[in-house]
Amino acid sequence: MNKYPIRLSIKGVILKEDKMLCLKHEKDGEVYYTLPGGGQEFGETIHQAVKRECLEEANVHVLPHEVMFIRDYIAKNHEFSTGNEEVHQVEIMLKCSLIVESEASLAIQPDDFQIGIEWIPLAQLLSTPLYPQILKEKITNYLKGSNGLIYLGDVN
Predict the structure, then answer these.
(1) CATH assignment of the domain containing 122
(2) Cα separation of 45 and 75, whole Å?
(3) pLDDT for 76-91, tens place per residue?
(4) In the predicted structure, residue 53 carries a pLDDT above the cut 80
(5) What is the average pLDDT across 23-31?
(6) Domain span at residue 134?
């Protein structure tokens, strides 16, 4: 039996007009962006998890839609590992829309190193330091109508 459980993380791809909502982080002087989301809790559905996480991290109420992407994150294979090489996380990324038009803001339970939230113009997505980096290309292609593969693999 594996003594290290696999963590399930649910993330929201929140699109509004020509922008995508991202969490803004700063670590060691480097600014970068991630999707809002986090660990699914016991007894919670995937939809409940993404709703809770988006509210906790970005103060927005979302309506979850289809699964856009699934990614493995096996820490020992990544340059941005948290230092614990025993981490294995499966990330499910759902397309979401805003339920209530509200001002997104740093909310009650921000992520580590999170300094804010930002609506990133989709036209600038390819040049934005978004992690995992593969999302820049995959989201751009998705918006052009090419859904492609849902499973991304263990990628940065």
Answers:
(1) 3.90.79.10
(2) 25
(3) 887 655 566 788 999 9
(4) yes
(5) 91
(6) 7-154
